Amino acid sequence: MKNYKKYILIVIFTSLVILLTFLYLSYRQVNFHALRDPPKDGEIIKKSLMHEGINRKYLVYKPSKINKNPPLVIYFHGSLGTGENMRNLSGFDFDYLANEYGFVVAYPDGYENHWNDCRRSASYSANLENIDDVGFVKALISQLQSDFNIDPQKVIASGFSNGGHMVYRLAMEAPESIFIAAPIAANMPVDENLDCVKSELPVHITIFNGTEDLINPYEGGLVEVLGNKSRGEVLSSQKTLNYWASLADVSLQEPTITNFPEIDGNPETKVSKISFSGQRDVSLYRLEGSGHVVPSKFMNFGEILGGNAKEISAAEEIFSFYKSLTLKSSMSE
C-alpha cells in the first residue's frame, strides 16, 4: 500500500513538472511585451476621419515639444493588428525619438484590421473590397498637416508585415506622397500576384528582413499566416532590394556593406546592411537569425515568430536615415 501511494505521488509530481514545463515553454512562444513603459511627457490622441464613407481611426503621438514644420512618421500595423498594437510592438521606439527630435507619429488602423496592399490573391476584406488605402493615407497626411503643421515633404512611411506591404504600395503608386519608405518583415509580391500600378519612380527606401522569418521568407516564396496561404508568393529580399536599386540608377556591383557590432549577447543573431546611393538611397538590413519581428532593443517577441536581432532598433535606423538625407540635401543647396 505504501509503495502504491508513493507511486501515485511520483506520478502526480511528474505530471505537475510536465505541465509547468509545457506552460513555461508555451508562454515563451507567445510572450510579447515591451521592455519599457510608454513615454510620460507626450500625449497620445485618438482621432478619426471619413474617407469614402468609412470612418477611419488613427492614433497620434504628440511630443511635449514639436518643432516647426516637423516630419511625420506613419507606422502601419500588421495583419489582424491596430495602430495601438503597432505602437506597443515597436517598444514605443518612435515615441521616444519624437520626444527627442520633435516630430509627430501617426498609428492608423487598417480596414477590418488589414491594409489593401499589392497582393492580388489576399483573402482579407481590405483587398476583396478594394479599399482605397492610398487615398486614405493622402487624406491623413493632409489632416495632420492641418492639425500639427507637419511638413508634407517629410513623410516617413514605415510598417510591419501587412503594413510593410502597404508601404510598398505607397512607394509604387504614390511616391510623391512620401519621403522615405521603410517596410519591415515584407518582400514585394511576385509579378504574377502584383495588384499595384508601378510608377517606376525611384524612392528613398530602407528594408528590414529576418533570415529566419517563417511568414515572409527571406529568400522568397509562399507567405503563410496561421495556415492561410492566400497572400501568395513574394520575391526574395535581395530581388526586392534590386528592384528599387534599379529605379535609383545605381550599380548593383558597388554596394556599401555595413556590419553592426554584436551587442545583444546572442551570437546567433547578426545584422548587416547593404546600401546603394544614386538618384535615391536604398538599403536592406539583413537580420541574420531574426524572425517575423520589428527590430527593437526594447521589445520581447515570442519565440513563435523567431528570434529578434537586438543589435539595432528599426526606428532608430529609419530616423538616422532621415537625418542623413536631410543633411545631404542641405549641403547640396
Extract low-pLDDT stretches: 16-30
Number of helices: 8
CATH-defined superfamily of the largest domain = Alpha/Beta hydrolase fold, catalytic domain
Approximate shape: globular
- For the biggest β-sheet, the strand order reads 2-3-5-4-6-7-8-13-12-11
> Kindly, what is the distance between the CA atoms of the first and last residues, rounded to a whole number of angstroms?
93 Å
Pfam family, one: Esterase_PHB
Organism: Candidatus Micropelagius thuwalensis
Transmembrane segments: 7-27
Enzyme class: transferase
Topology overview:
Elements: H1 2-30, E1 33-34, E2 43-51, E3 54-62, E4 72-76, H2 83-89, H3 93-101, E5 104-108, H4 125-128, H5 133-148, E6 155-160, H6 162-173, E7 180-184, E8 204-210, E9 221-222, E10 233-234, H7 237-247, E11 256-259, E12 270-277, E13 281-288, E14 299-300, H8 314-332
Parallel strand pairs: 4-5, 4-6, 6-7, 7-8, 8-13
Antiparallel strand pairs: 1-14, 2-3, 3-5, 9-10, 11-12, 12-13
